[in-house]
Design a protein that fits this description.
Layout: E1 7-13, E2 26-32, E3 38-43, E4 51-54, E5 57-63, E6 68-77, E7 82-89
Antiparallel strand pairs: 1-5, 2-3, 2-6, 4-5, 6-7
Length: 98
């Protein structure tokens, strides 16, 4: 389980109907923190904070600034896909170094 102030990657793997890795026309990664604040990032040919690692493989780096239940989803166009996930963040147990 990640701690507050950890950086994680929200990962999305896109496949076509045959199960092979494929790039969508556009991918949107949306996340909601425990306070209900929602943000989204869109990848459409290279702009934005979503990183394309390989064919059909995308990630969004995210610093976790709050403990509790986080939600995130991935939605694509072209190759249609929608995923929704939940994860939890705990308070940092060890203080940050000076």
């Amino acid at each position: 389980m990640p701690d507050v102030n950890d950086q994680i990657e929200l990962r999305a793997e896109v496949t076509n109907s045959a199960g092979n890795a494929a790039d969508p026309t556009e991918i949107t990664i949306r996340h909601t923190d425990p306070s209900g604040n929602t943000a989204e990032e869109v990848f459409s040919g290279g702009a934005g904070n979503v990183v394309k690692d390989a064919l059909g493989d995308f990630n969004l780096p995210l610093v976790l600034d709050e403990a509790g239940r986080w939600k995130w989803s991935t939605q694509t166009t072209g190759i249609i896909m929608y995923q929704e996930r939940v994860f939890y963040v705990r308070e940092r147990n060890v203080p940050d170094p000076p």
